[in-house]
Amino acid sequence: MKSKLPRKQRLERYSATHHVQHKFLGSHLGPELVKKHGTRSLPVRKGDKVKILRGDFAGMEGEVTEVDYKGAKVYVQGVTFAKADGTQVQKPVHASKVMIVTLVEDAKRNKVLERRSKGG
Asked: Which helix (H) or strand (E) holds 92?
């Protein structure tokens, strides 16, 4: 970003294009994945198994059920809270506060991992 003004940084973030919003969803990989793939972080995807590092649910592991691009949040299976009427609702977790434990691999992601492992 070019500006230091918070209002302009927020505007850039909110009005970012989809391929840029995808980069906001980056989170760390687990230690064994770092050794295996040679990269420290990747954007979170639906189906990935993650461990929550911060907040009320720290230490909890679960599968990502939904990804919110606009808010850079992920919804993890088992992370819920009770509303006033007693119904359970999934609580969003910021993507930077989770660590990917296992990856969902497909052709596109394998291509990204191969490119990153070469150091370029």
From this structure: strand 88-94
